[in-house]
């Protein structure tokens, strides 16, 4: 037999022994014989309750036991809609400001003074008036007009912004075409510059008569010279184009002047 089976056998035997002992110890015989007849009609139908004393401490302790929420007395009073404290606990509970707050929240029963104490004093009224005059110098009508003016200006600003956006959206296709034209022009310029540089490189290599490295000092010197000459040629071409443009403009102005003189001469005196 294995050790585990031996242990299970001992445990089951001990459990049975404990159950038997418990049954014999706690088993009690009925005080009345089983065949006794009980008269049900003789039983009193009125329930019997224990008498509750009129002691305030007893009622206070009973209410404390009945409060299963575990809230404090102040929090429970707030939950029930009554004043938190029956007697002042903190120094500010005696102030007029706190009593006004209790009066506004829980009514006249929450304060022990007449409601007239909540009215401000003449000094306080004057202070309020001074504050109103400084903080809000405009009357209600003036403030209303100011708000209407601000609203109108805001609406006009929104309309102007929407009109500007609409105008820009209408010009979107034009701007897109202009941008594409600028990009194409820039790409063409870059391509022309690349071709021109390749042409200069070929001219430099032809000048030396053999294939030379672009990192050679001679090549760099000749390349710089060729680029300088190319820039000079471009400058001269631009200058010539400008001169031709000015000449054409002068000829056009001269022709217009001659036409005006002829027209003046043809007019009858």
UniProtKB/TrEMBL annotation:
Q: Does the keyword Metal-binding apply?
A: no
The question of whether Cell membrane is a record keyword is answered with: no
Q: Which domain of life is it from?
A: Eukaryota
One GO cellular-component annotation of the UniProt record comes to: ribonucleoprotein complex
Residue ranges that the Swiss-Prot or TrEMBL entry lists as coiled coil: 146-259
- Subcellular location, in the record's words? Mitochondrion; Nucleus
The UniProt keywords, alphabetically, are: Cell cycle, Coiled coil, Mitochondrion, Nucleus, Ribonucleoprotein, Ribosomal protein
**InterPro entries per the record?**
Ribosomal_mL64, Ribosomal_mL64_sf
Q: Which PANTHER family match?
A: GROWTH ARREST AND DNA DAMAGE-INDUCIBLE PROTEINS-INTERACTING PROTEIN 1 GADD45GIP1, LARGE RIBOSOMAL SUBUNIT PROTEIN ML64
The job of this chain, per UniProt, is described as:
Acts as a negative regulator of G1 to S cell cycle phase progression by inhibiting cyclin-dependent kinases. Inhibitory effects are additive with GADD45 proteins but also occur in the absence of GADD45 proteins. Acts as a repressor of the orphan nuclear receptor NR4A1 by inhibiting AB domain-mediated transcriptional activity. May be involved in the hormone-mediated regulation of NR4A1 transcriptional activity. May play a role in mitochondrial protein synthesis.
What family name appears in the similarity comment?
Belongs to the mitochondrion-specific ribosomal protein mL64 family.
Name of the protein in question:
Large ribosomal subunit protein mL64
């Amino acid at each position: 037999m294995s050790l585990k089976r031996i242990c299970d056998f001992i445990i089951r035997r001990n459990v049975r022994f404990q159950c038997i002992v418990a049954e014999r110890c706690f088993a009690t015989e009925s005080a009345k014989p089983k065949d006794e007849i009980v008269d049900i009609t003789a039983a009193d139908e009125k329930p019997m309750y224990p008498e509750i004393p009129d002691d305030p401490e007893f009622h206070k302790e009973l209410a404390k036991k009945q409060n299963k929420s575990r809230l404090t007395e102040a929090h429970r009073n707030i939950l029930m809609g009554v004043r938190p404290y029956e007697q002042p606990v903190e120094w500010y509970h005696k102030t007029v400001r706190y009593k006004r707050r209790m009066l506004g929240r829980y009514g006249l029963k929450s304060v022990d003074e007449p409601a007239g104490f909540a009215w401000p004093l003449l000094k306080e009224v004057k202070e309020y008036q001074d504050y109103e005059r400084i903080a809000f110098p405009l009357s209600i009508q003036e403030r209303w007009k100011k708000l209407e003016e601000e609203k109108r200006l805001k609406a006009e600003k929104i309309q102007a912004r929407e009109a500007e956006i609409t105008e820009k959206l209408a010009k979107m296709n034009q701007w897109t075409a202009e941008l594409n034209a600028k990009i194409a022009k820039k790409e063409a310029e870059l391509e022309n510059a690349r071709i021109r540089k390749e042409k200069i490189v070929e001219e430099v290599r032809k000048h030396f008569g053999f294939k030379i490295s672009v990192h050679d000092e001679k090549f760099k010197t000749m390349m710089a010279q060729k680029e300088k000459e190319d820039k000079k040629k471009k400058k001269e071409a631009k200058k010539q184009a400008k001169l031709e443009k000015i000449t054409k403009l002068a000829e056009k102005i001269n022709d217009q002047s001659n036409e005006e003189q002829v027209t003046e001469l043809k007019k009858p005196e």
